[in-house]
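Attaching the record inline, Q. Sequence:
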Amino acid sequence: MQTQTTDLLPDPPLPPTDQSPIEHPSTLRNIFFGDEGLRAGWSILLFVALLAAFLFTANFITHKIHPPSHTTSPDKTIPYFFMFLNESIPFLGVCLVTWIMSKIERRPIGIYGLGGSSKVPHFIAGLAWGIICLSPFIFILWKAGFLVFDQRLLFGTDIFRYGAQWLVMFFVVGLLEEYLTRGYLQYTLTRGLAGLFHWVFKTPHSRALGFWTSAVIFSLLFGFAHGSNPGESPIGLLTAGLASMMFCLVLWRTGSLWWAIGFHTTWDWGQSYLYGVADSGIMVQHHLLATHPVGKPLLSGGTTGPEGSIIILPIIILIVLVIIFTLPRTHAGYTRLMERPIES
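Structure, as predicted:
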């Protein structure tokens, strides 16, 4: 009589398969990477480190080629060449580092504010509104006796030559200040805060909360950064912060920085070159008109310029209304940029 022992034998080994076991992400990987790639905090740190390295290198090279000298002329104005270098080199650094980060994170570079549709119409509209909004402000200061026009300083072809030079200069200023504070850094901090708000509050409005929280943070930094300008005042710092929030509203509605760049360009150009007033405490060479403030700095702006006058606050409200009524929010708004997938 034979006994059945087959049930006691071990199971034969399974044949090999092409499927590999599921790999769970390690804790170390989770620290650096999330669902959207490199986490926002590390991205910002890397951006800042790369930009600092670029600026340090550029500063070292320029000091070797051209040793530093006086940055202001005897009349306390800033020469064109020095100001152009001081703005254009950092802007090139911001562009380079933004491009590097876009490749690292596999995102299209246009989502950081310089892409989108209607770039030229938005830019031209911003150029127009910048000078349109500045001129009545200057007119009010003049009629109220807080600003005096002394004389015209330029004649003939010099009017157009220096006018064009300073227009290019302030275009670069607008590019640098807008792209640095409301470009890659704004997008990335918004991305990180949106994820945090969604995780904590489970809210469908996490992107909006992330955007406006980062807008407040960078607007505060933008305002404080103007404190290094000569002759700056508390009202001037407040104005800079409010202007930053105003430009964030443009970015939120259009998904683009081009309107803000255009407005920034002609607003600064109108102050510095056309009307010859201080801009955040800075005077430039070869401006068209000579002027000087009169009266209490709280009203005239003093050495800060018109931006240091409390009269600018209703002007800012006017500009916000212009933005709301001339830039209706469309499908090109900022939240659409946040929906763009990572490139494969």
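Residues 152 and 289 are 5 Å apart (CA to CA). Confidence is low (pLDDT under 50) at residues 1-8.

More tomorrow.
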